[in-house]
Amino acid sequence: MEKLKILIPTDFSVQAEFAYLMVKKIEEGLPSEIHFLHILSAPDTVTMDENGKVETCGEIDVRHVEKQKEIAERKLQQLKETYGSDIYVHLRLGKITDNIVDFAQNNQFDLIAMGTKGAWGAKEKLSGSETQFIARRSTVPVLSLMCDRSDLVVKNILLVHDFSKPAHENLVLLSKIVTAFHTKLHFLQIANVKSADNDKEIEGNMNQFAQLNNIKNFDVHILNDKDVENGVIHFNEMNNMDIICIGTHGKPGIFHKSATEKLINHMFKPIISFHLNN
Q1: Domain that holds residue 234
Q2: Residue 206 belongs to a domain
Q3: Whole-number pLDDT of residue 122
Q4: Which residue among 54, 87, 115 closes a domain?
Q5: pLDDT 10s digits, 98-108
Q6: CATH classification at residue 187
Q7: Quick one: average pLDDT of 216-237?
C-alpha cells in the first residue's frame, strides 16, 4: 500500500507532540511516511545554502544564527532518537508560514498535521494563528488539533459543506481515511431557512454530491443556525463527531470571516481543512 506522506511542522512544543500522536493514530489504518520540519524564523537578509552554511547581510550576527541552528539540529536529532530513526527531519530558514506551505507543496505531501494553541479575542483579530494562515494558503490538506487525541477512535467524520452547487472536490485524503477506518461520513449543511421544501432540495444536492465524489456510506444532516461555526458546535454537542472536515476558499483579509479558520482557532476537535475547487 502506498504510504501517506505527512508533514509535521514543529517548534518543539507540546502542540507538535499532539500532532505526532494524532498522526500515529492515522498510521494505525494508513501506513505513513512522517517528516518533521522546523523553521528558524529569520528575515530575508539571512540565508542558508544546501550545505547548511548561514550568510547574512551584516546587520545580523551570523554567529547568533549559527548557534540557533545548532540548537535546532540537536532537537531534531532528539526527535529521531525519541520517535525512531524511520522519521525524517528538516531544517529551513525564513518566514515560518511561507516555508511550511512551500515545503509541503514542493515536496508533494498528502497532509500537514499541526498542533495549535488556537486564537481568541484580540489575538485572533490582529494575528490569528499560524495554523489558520497555513490552512488558508496551503493546497495540501491541513489537520489541526489543540490537545492530545491519542485515544481517538475514528468512527464518525463530519463533512461540513455548502451543498447548493454539487461538484467534484479534492477529497482524496478523506476517502483514504474513510476506507481505512471503515468510518461513517456525515454531511452537514447549516441552513438559514428551515422548511420542508428547502430541506428536500438540500438532501437532493447532498445525494448528487455523494455520486460526484464516489461516496457510499453517509448520512445527511441539515441544521438551522445563525452561522457555520455555531452550527458545527451545536451539531457536535448533539452528535459527537471524531473528526471535522471542512473546505476553504482560501480568501485572505481581516474583513473575510472564514468559518474554517474560526473553527481551527476555537474548536477542540481534530479538523481537516482542504481547498475547494470552486
Answers
A1: 156-275
A2: yes
A3: 36
A4: 115
A5: 999 999 999 99
A6: 3.40.50.620
A7: 92
Residue 82's pLDDT is: 93
Concatenate the DSSP letters of all residues of the chain into one string. -PPEEEEEE--SSHHHHHHHHHHHHHHTTS-EEEEEEEEEE--TT-EE-TT--EE--SSS-HHHHHHHHHHHHHHHHHHHHHH-TTSEEEEEEE-HHHHHHHHHHHTT-SEEEEE-----HHHHHHT--HHHHHHHH-SS-EEEESS--TT----EEEEE--TTS------HHHHHHHHHHTPEEEEEEEESS--HHHHHHHHHHHHHHHHHTT--SEEEEEEE-SSHHHHHHHHHHHS--SEEEEEE----STT---HHHHHHHH--S-EEEEE---
The bridge status of strand 142-145 relative to strand 111-115 is parallel
Query: In the predicted model, is pLDDT for residue 110 greater than 90?
Result: yes
Contact 7, 113 (CB under 8 A): yes
Domain match, 193 and 258 both: yes
Q: pTM of the prediction?
A: 0.89
First to last CA, the chain: 31
* pLDDT tens profile 227-272: 898 999 999 999 999 999 999 876 654 434 577 888 887 777 899 9
Residue 264 lies in a domain: yes
121: which 3 cell numbers? Answer: 479575542
* 24-70 tens-digit pLDDT: 999 999 999 999 999 998 877 777 777 777 777 767 777 888 899 99
The number of residues making up the chain comes to 278
